[in-house]
Amino acid sequence: MTRRGRPLRFLALVCTGWVGLRIAILWHATGSLPQAIEAVVPVAALAAPTAHPAPDPATGQAPASVSAGRKNAATPPPPTRLRPSAPDPFDPARAQLAMAVMVRYGDPEYVAGAPQTAPSPSVVPATAPPSLGWSGALWVLRRGNGVRAAAPGAAQLGGGQAGIRVAYRAGPRGALALAGRLTAPLEGQGREATMSVEWQPTRLPVRIVAERRVALDGGADGTGAGIIAGTQADIPAGFRLEAYGQAGGVLRDRLEPYADGAVRVLRPVRRRGKTQLSLGAGAWGGAQRGIARVDIGPAAVIDFPAGDKHLRLAFEWRERIAGNALPGSGLAVTLGADF
Q: Where does the record place Pro residues bias (predicted)?
């Protein structure tokens, strides 16, 4: 396959892997592979029509056996129903906040070098459709070992970032959304405003996104498209899986492809009122033109309420195990909120 075909091949692999992961999770939850497949790709079964005996031509009444059965029936027969699909493992509000705190990588920055313009991914991955209308999330990620300690010309991917995202959902199941996003690195240039149209064509938590990015500090504007998927689900031994993945490209002076993802496994260990502490581990990875990284490490996450909203504070040690991007290994602290 040619280089031009690699983005399409990657998107196909992402979609195939995502469907396989969903089937595996629901197979464990239902204990039935057919039910798991039906939940991922719903197929409506048609209920067979109920046969009613013809009335007796002589009397104009139903046969005696039928009449007696009606009189002796203690309760009416239950209505015919389609077999319910597997329970949906998503909590939209919690999922959106969980993904917002798993802040992904922004544009690469090059210390003491010429300005670079590679794409930055969207900030909140797909979740189950929330209620129609307005929703939003904001986040701040702080990482040590930033660009100030880097050598000239070093590439930065995955540094500190702050952002806010507001979306309006409409249509069946909230499948169509208009969203606006503002993001900014905590150090250096890269501030950006984004307007996007998002479409979730099926019940699967996968969104197709078309967006327009406007640089706010002298960079190049761009038009992008991509696919974003995210989920959270209960898994054995009391653990909970949170994951997202995305891939796409932004057209500026040239097409800049990107891909990144993260997975985190957490287990609640302490709860007081509505405040909960969870411990676990995570893995994060990202790649753009000429730069990539993979991090792993332990994680501690605190979920707590603020009025009728949710806040999440995450402490993670991100140990870089592959790639050439800065910052190096270190502590990442993230605060996220929904509204």
A: 75-90
Which of 192, 200, 202, 198 has its CA nearest to residue 211?
198
CA–CA dist 295, 136 (Å, integer): 28
CATH code (residue 271) = 2.40.160.40
Beta pairing partners, 227: 208, 247
Split into its structural domains, the chain has a count of 2
Reported confidence tier of residue 6, pLDDT bands at 50, 70, 90: low
What would the pLDDT profile of 286-337 be if each residue is shown by its tens digit? Answer: 999 889 999 999 999 999 998 888 899 999 999 999 998 888 899 999 999 9
127 and 257 within one domain: yes
Structure-token match 């002298």, residue found: 218
For residue 74, tell me if it sits in a domain: no
What's the sign of the alpha-carbon dihedral 86, 92, 94, 98? positive
pTM of the shown model: 0.63
Decide: residue 64, CB within 10 A, 0-12 exposed, 13-18 middle, 19+ buried.
exposed
Q: Percentages helix, strand, coil for the chain, rounded to the nearest 5? A: 20, 45, 35
- Residue 148: domain span: 88-338
Per-residue pLDDT, 308:
81
Per-residue tokens: 130: 């929330």
162 in the same domain as 261: yes
Q: Peptide bond before 119: cis, by omega within 30 degrees of 0?
A: no
**93-108 pLDDT, tens digit each:** 444 444 444 544 444 4
Q: Is residue 54 part of a domain?
A: no
